[in-house]
Design goal:
7-stranded mixed β-sheet, 5-stranded antiparallel β-sheet, mainly beta
Amino acid sequence: MKKVVLWALFLLSVLFLSLRLSTIPVKFLNPGQKSGIKILSIPEGAEVAIDGVVVGKTPFENSALESTELTLNLSAPSASWSGRVLLNKGTVTIVNRELSSDEASSSGEILTLNEGSGANIISNPQDADVEIDGKIVGKTPIHVSIQSGEHLFVLSRLGFLKRSVKAVAPSGYNLGLKVDLAISEIDLSNLTTAPVTASPRVKVLQTPTGFLRVRDKPSLNSSEVARVSSGDELILLEEAVSWNKVRLSDGKEGYVASNYVQKINQ
């Protein structure tokens, strides 16, 4: 009887995002059941593809998926987003995106639940200030101890737009919050110095996989930090025989195989 009461309480709990004063209720699934996903986007009506298969349009929800990590693609006219999303057994993962034709201007968050406590907060880019219920608690990535209940998370970083997420942290669960910040526009009228020469850039060529891995070190055995697509333009930081150090549009830096990029004439 005690277990029934506890899961009844879970079913009454909600997890929601705060975006332009809107709230998104989310349910728990019973233990042992499939995993769920709920996908929202601005604009609505974006095409949803899971592991390469088109499954519908946003807003989209499916509560009969396996617990796994999947590839999610959202496509709207002149805007798209792609990322890896983790599904945890018995819970619903929330994906909320503001789509943009420019990756650096795209923003959003992914919320997950797992057994445990507190909240794990990461951001892209890293080192964003984290404010919870009006109090600065540190910089991303960070794990914080929070009481169960509703909390307002605000992430901010110099040069990027603030992002606010309102969520309910259920008792007995760890709340995972992954936030992508959009780069803010620079007011060039306030600049008094002369413009500098544009940084050299490279263009990503066609690859056998359809994408190019960006690694943290110039080695095939090093960790992957990002993936870029054919046609993407990257800022060139260093040139070598086999590897080039580059900077992505989100500020992330890494190494790409030099035979799959071509220097752009400025």
